[in-house]
């Protein structure tokens, strides 16, 4: 279980590079993620959380350092190529699903994530039974709306669908970017529980950005805090389990000063 | 009667433009101006090829090929060159004007005495105007069936997803740039096919025949949508053809009202503008809305 799956070495990301306004977002950041890790990522606004995810996801070119997945250097892999082993869920429910396509069509697209697509009939019907059992696990009525365009789903259902789509074809690495933040507290908690169940069940390796200290403490086996483009705090295992909200708050207060 | 048959024939021949534009305007969700150049390009290429002794069928295939090439250039300018799609289309459209003059060697090229797809024995044996109805029908059925098949394939689904949500499409490993280029190529190939057919039906190609083409193609899409309302994707493809025929009927009516052919572009623009504004009017003037407004407090 402690085999490293993702390694970031000395990663640097600047904006406005080579201009007087140059700002360093990720400042020689190092991170090793082990197989089966469920890491919650905390950090104030501008600490570089989203940039970290974009660097791993490949929709942002890094200006220094390297990223390796299973000992393979993927620093220069395109975003599309990384989808072979990586999937993500965005904060905005609108970003994760195709609104004019039905729930089942969206799931079918996700089932073939990272694969080459040919001029073969898509074969939706043989998958319907599987999609039904799968959507039932979300416990929010999604299974009755398989033939509904996702644009007319509620935000919670859409986000649950995005999450299912990201995990339908098992990713080596799952990135959750505040995927429950846009939902009301009850729906948010429901999705968080379902997320946790599925990650445990499938033994997924996952990084999850959150602003909820409670969630960050409750879920996952490891917690990291990003600050000024570096990882300033990293606890796992028993140490993480015994961490309290007060301790975290004190830690954040220290950062502020 | 003849006028109605003629309108149906024209509607069928021009419907392929609406179907072509549907791929970019409705599925990829951007306006592609290239079509104003590829329509006369298809006309010029096919007429010039026939004039050089190629068979009408080969000439039509050549037209499809050059149309796809124009779409490829727009696609490359847009995706790789990062030129906004509207401008990329206008650039290729402008360039196509010169190309068309080069291909034809002059502004207008006639097919007088030359074979065309419409001059086969079978089509000539039909009553007047039924040649364009028959050929148009065959072409539209083939094109629509191919599109319906394509859109239900894995590739077609990724094409739809690209237009629907590009961020999601990329996160699922879909090469969205390639999808856009492919869409532009197929779309412009179809527009060019329309140009080749219309030119052969008219018996000539003219370098100015592309003006207002995007409005006509859009009109068949929008009229189809306004007339038939909520439809599935496959039904919408058929609605485009019906919309194209309806549009010809509208033109027939306004021409009978005393307008002449020189007014056609103005009329096309007005018809399209009215159809596109219809949802706004419906909202503004709907009874339900008025009732609600009447009940709202004024503070």
Automatic annotation (TrEMBL), chain A:
InterPro entries: AAA+_ATPase, ABC_transporter-like_ATP-bd, ABC_transporter-like_CS, ABC_transpr_LolD-like, P-loop_NTPase. It comes from the Bacteria. Pfam families: ABC_tran. This is Putative ABC transport system ATP-binding protein. GO terms for molecular function: ATP binding; ATP hydrolysis activity; transmembrane transporter activity. It comes from Secundilactobacillus oryzae JCM 18671. Signal peptide: none annotated. Keywords: ATP-binding, Nucleotide-binding. Gene3D superfamilies: P-loop containing nucleotide triphosphate hydrolases. Residues 6-253 form the ABC transporter domain. GO terms for cellular component: plasma membrane.
Automatic annotation (TrEMBL), chain B:
Pfam families: BPD_transp_2. Its main location: membrane. Coiled coil: none annotated. It is found in: Cell membrane. It comes from the Bacteria. One of its GO terms (cellular component) is plasma membrane. Keywords: Cell membrane, Membrane, Transmembrane, Transmembrane helix. It is a multi-pass membrane protein. GO terms for molecular function: transmembrane transporter activity. The chain crosses the membrane at residues 12-28, 48-78, 85-105, 128-151, 181-199, 211-228, 237-258, 264-281. PANTHER family: ABC TRANSPORTER PERMEASE PROTEIN YPHD-RELATED-RELATED, BRANCHED-CHAIN AMINO ACID TRANSPORT SYSTEM, PERMEASE PROTEIN. This is Putative ABC transport system permease protein.
């Amino acid at each position: 279980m402690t085999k490293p799956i993702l390694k970031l070495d000395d990663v640097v990301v600047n904006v406005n590079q080579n201009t007087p306004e140059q700002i360093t977002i990720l400042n020689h950041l190092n991170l090793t993620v082990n197989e089966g890790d469920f890491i919650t990522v905390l950090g104030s606004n501008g600490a570089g959380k989203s940039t970290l995810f974009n660097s791993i996801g490949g929709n942002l070119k890094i200006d220094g350092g390297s990223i390796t997945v299973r000992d393979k250097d993927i620093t220069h892999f395109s975003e599309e190529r990384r989808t072979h082993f990586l999937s993500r869920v965005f904060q905005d429910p609108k970003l994760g699903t195709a609104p004019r396509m039905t729930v089942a069509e969206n799931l079918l697209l996700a089932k073939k994530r990272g694969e080459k697509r040919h001029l073969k009939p898509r074969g939706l019907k043989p998958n319907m039974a599987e999609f039904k059992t799968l959507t039932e696990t979300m416990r929010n009525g999604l299974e009755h709306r398989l033939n509904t365009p996702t644009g007319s789903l509620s935000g919670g259902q859409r986000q649950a669908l995005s999450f299912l789509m990201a995990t339908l074809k098992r990713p080596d690495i799952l990135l959750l970017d505040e995927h429950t933040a846009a939902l009301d507290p009850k729906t948010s908690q429901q999705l968080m529980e379902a997320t946790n169940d599925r990650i445990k069940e499938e033994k997924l390796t996952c990084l999850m950005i959150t602003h909820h200290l409670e969630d960050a403490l409750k879920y996952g086996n490891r917690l990291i805090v990003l600050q000024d483009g570096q990882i300033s705090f990293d606890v796992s295992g028993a140490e993480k389990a015994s961490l309290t909200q007060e301790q975290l708050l004190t830690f954040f207060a220290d950062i502020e000063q | 009667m003849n006028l109605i048959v003629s309108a149906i024939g024209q509607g069928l021949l021009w419907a392929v433009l609406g179907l072509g534009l549907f791929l970019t305007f409705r599925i990829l969700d951007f306006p592609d101006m290239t079509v104003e150049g590829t329509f006369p390009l298809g006309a010029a290429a096919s007429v010039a090829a026939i004039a050089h002794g190629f068979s009408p069928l080969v000439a039509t295939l050549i037209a499809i090929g050059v149309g796809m090439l124009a779409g490829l250039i727009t696609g490359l300018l847009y995706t790789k060159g990062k030129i906004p799609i509207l401008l990329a289309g206008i650039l290729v459209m402008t360039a196509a004007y010169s190309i068309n003059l080069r291909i034809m060697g002059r502004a207008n090229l006639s097919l007088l005495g030359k074979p065309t797809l419409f001059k086969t024995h079978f089509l000539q044996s039909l009553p007047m105007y039924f040649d364009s109805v028959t050929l148009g029908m065959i072409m539209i059925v083939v094109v629509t069936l191919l599109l319906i098949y394509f859109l239900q394939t894995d590739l077609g689904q990724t094409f739809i997803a690209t237009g629907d949500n590009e961020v999601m499409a990329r996160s699922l490993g879909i090469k969205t740039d390639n999808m856009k280029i492919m869409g532009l190529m197929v779309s412009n190939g179809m527009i060019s096919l329309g140009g080749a057919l219309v030119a052969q039906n008219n018996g000539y190609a003219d370098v100015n025949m592309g003006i207002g083409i995007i409005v006509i193609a859009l009109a068949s899409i929008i009229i189809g949508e306004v007339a038939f309302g909520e439809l599935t994707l496959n039904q919408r493809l058929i609605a485009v053809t019906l919309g194209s025929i309806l549009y010809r009927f509208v033109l027939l009516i306004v021409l009978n009202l005393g307008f002449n052919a020189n007014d056609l572009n103005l009329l096309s623009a007005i018809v399209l503008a009215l159809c596109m504004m219809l949802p706004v009017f419906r909202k503004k003037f709907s009874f339900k809305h008025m009732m609600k407004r009447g009940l709202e407090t004024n503070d």
